[in-house]
Amino acid sequence: MARLVENEGLLKDALKIYKDLYARTSSIRVLLEIARVNFELGNYQESKEAFLKSYKEGSLPQGVRSSIARYLLKIDKRIPTFIPSIGLSTDSNPMNFTSSKTVSVLGQTLNVVEPPENRSITGLNLGAKYNYPVSADSYVSIGSIIFDAPRSSFDKTSASFSVGKRNFLLDNSRLEFDLSRVWTKSNSDVLGKSLSLVRYPDVDSNWRYDLALGQDLVLDQPIYDSKYFDASATYFTNMSTNWPFEIQGGTSKVDREDLYNSNENYYLRALLTSNFSHFTPSFESGFRRTIYGSEDPFFLKQRFDSNIRHTLGLSLNSIDLEGLSPTFKVTYESNKSSIEYFSYEKIYASVTLEYM
Question: Which residue has the higher pLDDT, 257 or 18?
């Protein structure tokens, strides 16, 4: 009956029939129809709430869950969204301090003594982001992240402001300008600005392309001021598969005042994920090769780094705490350098309540 009424163009009447039917049956399939019709009527907030409820409570096929995800992305482009998060994170080596016991400086071998402040730290993360659609293709975004680790010097606060334009020059593209500010306890406050262009895949493509230009000013240590360029391409598999994955390859260049602090990077990243009814597992692995511009004047060598990073993640979709769902991540990172002082290993982990 509801579908016949809908075919006559009477969407509001069809919505009333679907709601009455859902009140009697609590059917997830009917709830999806309520979400879809609300979307067609422009009731985006009501549509989002119904889609999220279906996504979290229903034992849905992967193809249906992927379709819901696409609807949610479209809705977020049309209504203001506030995305809060809260969590705990721990880092076994917050200074990325060397694992080597000795280093060679100006031709002399010296013993390495780890500073006491490099002990493992655990801190509270608070985050918030607000997106406001100015028009169908333009938006403004502001965000902030606070990290507070008791009895340490690693506290950090960041804030960002972005303006963006979708379908810039090309369909399925986005141009974004970003300003950011980072405050720290260690005299390394940063003021950043960047311009990025993203070309999203269209219906018949599985490729995404990213370009970014930016500048970071380290306010109390201008020797580390930098200008950078980054370009990458990402290949996606179809999201309707049980285990979708993506592979990204790219290159970047960082220019600083001293050539030995400037570098070129080549990187490769792979992400494998899935989306079951009650949980979402993921595994991400990345490799980055960094080539510095010249011989380091203190270590009398040119620096080459090889960095690997592996991350296991798990999101529990079935748990809903006022719209927040928990996500767990554990990361192992290893950096091998031609200059021993820059070789290190670390493990960091986090549990975060994220708004879906």
Answer: 257
- Of 57, 76, 95, the one marking the end of a domain is 76
Residues 92 and 55 in one domain: no
For residue 158, the enclosing domain spans 82-355
b/e map 205-225, b = 16+ CB within 10 Å: eeebebebebebebeeeeeeb
What CATH number is given to the structural domain containing 300? 2.40.160
What are the tens digits of pLDDT across the range 212-251? 999 999 988 888 899 999 999 999 876 556 678 899 999 9
Final residue before a domain boundary, out of 10, 43, 76: 76
- Pairwise CA distance, residues 178 & 193, whole Å: 6
In this structure, the answer to whether residues 39 and 161 fall within a common structural domain is no
Note the pLDDT tens digit of each residue in 47-92: 888 888 887 665 667 667 767 877 887 787 788 988 899 999 999 9
Of 41, 38, 40, residue with least CA distance to 54 = 38
Tokens (6 digits) for 3: 């579908």
The alpha carbon torsion through 29, 55, 133, 162 (nearest 10 deg) reads -160
Give, in order, the Cα–Cα distances in Å from 278 to each of 30, 94, 281, 308.
20, 33, 10, 30
> What distance in Å separates the CA atoms of residue 220 and residue 345, rounded to the nearest whole number?
28
